[in-house]
Amino acid sequence: MALLESITSPADVRRLTRTQVARLAEEIRTFLVESVSRTGGHLGPNLGVVELTIALHRVFDSPRDTMVFDTGHQAYVHKLLTGRTDFSQLRRRGGLSGYPSRTESEHDVVENSHASTALSWADGIAKANQLQGRGQRHVVAVIGDGALTGGMAWEALNNIAAGQDRRLVVVVNDNGRSYDPTIGGLARHLDTLRTTQGYENVLSWGKQTLRRSGPPGRFAYDALHGLKKGIKDVVAPQGMFEDLGLKYVGPVDGHDEQAVEHALRRAKAFGGPVIVHVITEKGRGYTPAEQDVADRFHAVGQIHPETGLPLAPSRFGWTSVFADEIVRIGRRRKDVVAITAAMLQPVGLAPFAAEFPDRVFDVGIAEQHAATSAAGMAFGGLHPVVAVYATFLNRAFDQVLMDVALHRAGVTFVLDRAGLTGDDGASHNGMWDMAMLGIVPGLRLAAPRDEPTLRDALRTSVDVDDAPTVVRYPKGAMGDPLPAVDEVDGIDVLARHDGADADAPSVLVVGVGAMAVTAVATGEVLAAHGLRVTVVDPRWVLPVPIALTKLAGAHDHVVTIEDGVVDGGIGALLGQRCTDVGVRTPVQAVGVPRRFLDHASRDQLVGELRLGPNDVARDVLTALGRLPGTAQ
Ligand SMILES: Cc1ncc(C[n+]2csc(CCOP(=O)(O)OP(=O)(O)O)c2C)c(N)n1
Ligand SMILES: CC(=O)[C@@H](O)[C@H](O)COP(=O)(O)O
Ligand SMILES: [Mg+2]
């Protein structure tokens, strides 16, 4: 690793000889496998951009030239080349973020891990450069073929093409995959461009030999060059990019560092908007990743570096229950179809796809399209189930509101990774959905607490054909079933404690979704302090059930506990509904604060945000003035 250890900035990379560049690439690959095997992370995507990133930093002068990475999960090599080599705490509290981070480096700009935004960033930066006298500087956006299936990317390309005098280089990192092979017409187009690699080779042969053989040879080359355009348009209609007014360079072998450098220098010299189409391989150079059919080790946990096998077997989780139940539903409901935004495996739709291949649709990284096309499917008599990570539904809010809800479409959204996820950083926490969807007229949202309630919520949702339904659950392992001891007007009662002190206040503890476990434990702590406690789980939390306001009215104090942003969350809405119906019981809403959370483990965040039972109970006792040593 001697060479990698000598790299402290891109200037060091630019000083390397050809031989050293090749050795650096080897050292980086070895480092990535050894380090990411220990910590987990996006191993496959970063193995695919080693030579590309080296070439980027040899051709462009970051941070004078601005580099933005779409989604940012493939920026590990960029971090290594900009002086950050301590990956020992990657994605952990105090360690490197798994994405670009402005607090880490002046070379990092876009921290958002939501795909398809980089080109818009680049367009804006290029416009600012032009207006502020920095027009000589380049903006370079690296975007994957998957991210290029997102609508924002095409909005941006349309604008980028309008700026013919802006120095903007779009590098398409085309490895043919998101998780699965990338879908759709764009993928097919990139494929045809990819397969015309032969023309580039013929052209370069022509340049070297024909043009050296005097006028006849030069004539022949010029004819061939003219022909290339014609043939390419026949075999690989380049029109898409060039018709947009974007110069196209490529396709170039993304693992031939010199070829990539050459293509980037051509693009840099062009001085206007240009696409460089780089062909890479996800997982390149690491056999277990190259052979991983599922997703080329897109995102791995801790693995054995030699075999690539996971060190800890994946435990029974929320996703696997959804995966099983949606198949059961699909067997009895032929109208139920499933939609994924390029995440078939991660959201658990693979078994459904295996059994009902004609009833599952991968729309690419296109959540807005997923939502509105689902409204179309519902109009056509289907019941679509749109399975996405909670945080990624944010970008489809208007489609949920104005295409699905406004038209009372029976669409079910299944939100995996809802709540605190932690190690993927601020833009990955699924903490926004309940506050965001709480204002959607007619929408019904379920937050199941365990396997039975998840299965029940899914079965209930697909029976609703005149409104959007949402089922949200957290990442990872699922706790044991938490049975109700009673039910009051559709609200599950999970525990009752009579309380030792006759005159002690009574507290209603409302657990939302997976936080029901915390609610039960909080109730036990409060009971130990002599309070009369009722612990409930409404299961369907939007709209806030009227029965919950009645239960609140029967208690002296209410505390709600939710794995979502507390502003506008379930607790806040319950307080509003209580006021609406004249219930004066104070509602103490406990949840995630309205701020962006740095990467850390979920448990660390729960502790830091005082979402654990002891902290919640302490805050309730404080509010009631019943903490030992506080005024009664
Ligand atoms: C809006 C949004 N939807 C889904 C994801 C989840 N996701 C992360 S990376 C990825 C695949 C990206 O594919 P590509 O852009 O080709 O990059 P590659 O991993 O191939 O380098 C997806 C779907 C996301 N980050 N953002
Ligand atoms: C970058 C991205 O959005 C995904 O790769 C995400 O990091 C995966 O998250 P999980 O590991 O929770 O599936
Ligand atoms: Mg890709």
Automatic annotation (TrEMBL):
Protein's GO biological process: isopentenyl diphosphate biosynthetic process, methylerythritol 4-phosphate pathway; terpenoid biosynthetic process; thiamine biosynthetic process
Catalytic activity reported: D-glyceraldehyde 3-phosphate + pyruvate + H(+) = 1-deoxy-D-xylulose 5-phosphate + CO2
Position of the signal peptide: none
Residues that hold Mg(2+) according to the record: 145, 175
Enzyme Commission code: 2.2.1.7
Record-annotated Transketolase-like pyrimidine-binding domain positions: 316-480
Keyword Metal-binding: yes
InterPro entries (alphabetical): Dxylulose-5-P_synthase, THDP-binding, Transketo_C/PFOR_II, Transketolase-like_Pyr-bd, Transketolase_BS, Transketolase_C, Transketolase_CS
Cofactor(s) demanded: thiamine diphosphate; Mg(2+)
Pathway terms, separated by semicolons: Metabolic intermediate biosynthesis; 1-deoxy-D-xylulose 5-phosphate biosynthesis; 1-deoxy-D-xylulose 5-phosphate from D-glyceraldehyde 3-phosphate and pyruvate: step 1/1
Classification via Gene3D superfamilies: 3.40.50.920, 3.40.50.970
Source organism, top-level taxon: Bacteria
SMART domains linked: Transket_pyr (SM00861)
GO cellular component, as recorded: cytosol
Family matches, as CDD domains: TPP_DXS, TPP_PYR_DXS_TK_like
NCBIfam families according to UniProt: dxs (TIGR00204), PRK05444.2-2 (NF003933)
Protein name, as recorded: 1-deoxy-D-xylulose-5-phosphate synthase
Source organism (scientific name): Cellulomonas algicola
Taxon lineage: Bacteria, Bacillati, Actinomycetota, Actinomycetes, Micrococcales
Gene transcribed to yield this protein: dxs2
